[in-house]
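User: Quick sanity check before I run a bigger batch. Here is a single chain. Can you write out its predicted 3D structure?
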Amino acid sequence: MVIATQNPIEQAGTYRLPEAQLDRFLMKSSVGYPDAQATEDLLQDAKTRDRAGLIKPIMSTDLIESMSAIADEVYVDPAIITYVRELAEASRDADHVKLGLSVRGCLALIRVCKTWAVANGRSYVVPQDVADLAHPVLGHRLILDGEAVFRGVDIDEVIDGLLKQIAAPPYASSSRMGDIEFSFDAFKRLVTPLGRSLLLIGLLAWLLAVFGGGRSCESRQSPV
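Assistant: Done. Predicted structure follows.
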């Protein structure tokens, strides 16, 4: 698993990762500045200098494996699979896009949607999951052309355009959902001590490990 940071201000003398390596990162998220309360708490604790030394493990490998087994059982309707494929195909022909979404990127979107469904207490993916996660999963994969930069078009506009262009399938329950052995009792036992946010972190950690294929990338320019 590789978790890397990128400072968008200090990039002098560094090189962008090749597109194929960027594609191996599951998601990219902008952290931004801490909120007002977090900033004040940090300033209040100014005496602490070695914050890395305060980090403690929050879950075991066995727990991550248990959560990954739950994510494996999440149902994805064929209509949603088609929806993701159509988004990918549209991205390859979209205006201002030099490189569209790859099959690897489609796999990443499906895997993240399954994780998101579990984190929200569902045993199935809904179309809104795809829309909610399109930006963090597609944002670093779609490469814009030079004209886009010249015209001031950003990647978020392109992704929003794709979501408007490709109609999401209407949500309808499937009879196959009832055949899935999805234990919400086990889910609750895992979630109670950790909270939903930690569950999501654990599942994403597993997905990152699987998606990365055991390969590492330079962290100096790679996104999270």
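The chain is about 50% helix and 0% strand.

User: Great, the batch can go ahead then.
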